[in-house]
Amino acid sequence: RRLYFDTHALVCLLEENGFTTQQSEVIVSALVKIMNTNLDMIYKDMVTKVQQEIALQQVMSHIGGVKKDMIILEKSEFSALRSENEKIKLELQQIKKQVTDEITKVRADNKLNLNLEKSRVKELVSLVTSRNISIPSNLQIWHAQQDRALTQTDRKIDTEVADLKTMLESHKLDNIKYLAGSIFTCLTVALGFYRLWI
């Protein structure tokens, strides 16, 4: 153990200031003992370089393990999200197909009903004109009723189509909300892991 001052110079300095050689040597030896005990106390609390390197390697291995766990978790989270998104896409496509099928079916049914009504009206008009029956007021009333029925069915078709469109839009919005929530959840998990790394 090194002493960072010159003991002989200190002895000489004490002798110059009136101490005897024996007194000076006793004082210097007492100072050396005090310094040694203080250094012993300091060295007990200090860590050696080897211990420090071992602790650093342990910390680095823990960080490496955490990184591996985070990568595995991140991959599993993203794969789960991808599979969920694929399921949602398939469901959306099925719903869209069902809605379009329903719309075409409703339109076809209504066109058929309209065509049947028109042909019935034409037959009645031709029957009335061929027999020269003069019931114009009743025929006009009946014709007006038919027109009203046609407009009502047109309105029903329009409202059904609008309802189907709003239902499709609401499904789209729900899926977009779910996707946004999933993305934000993944981002928060990734940021949490990132903060753990730092």
TrEMBL record:
<protein>
    <submittedName>
        <fullName>MCUR1 regulator</fullName>
    </submittedName>
</protein>
<comment type="similarity">
    <text>Belongs to the CCDC90 family.</text>
</comment>
<dbReference type="GO" id="GO:0051561">
    <property type="term" value="P:positive regulation of mitochondrial calcium ion concentration"/>
</dbReference>
<keyword id="KW-0812">Transmembrane</keyword>
<keyword id="KW-0496">Mitochondrion</keyword>
<keyword id="KW-0175">Coiled coil</keyword>
<dbReference type="GO" id="GO:0036444">
    <property type="term" value="P:calcium import into the mitochondrion"/>
</dbReference>
<dbReference type="Pfam" id="PF07798">
    <property type="entry name" value="CCDC90-like"/>
</dbReference>
<dbReference type="GO" id="GO:0005743">
    <property type="term" value="C:mitochondrial inner membrane"/>
</dbReference>
<feature type="transmembrane region" description="Helical">
    <location>
        <begin position="178"/>
        <end position="197"/>
    </location>
</feature>
<dbReference type="InterPro" id="IPR024461">
    <property type="entry name" value="CCDC90-like"/>
</dbReference>
<keyword id="KW-1133">Transmembrane helix</keyword>
<keyword id="KW-0472">Membrane</keyword>
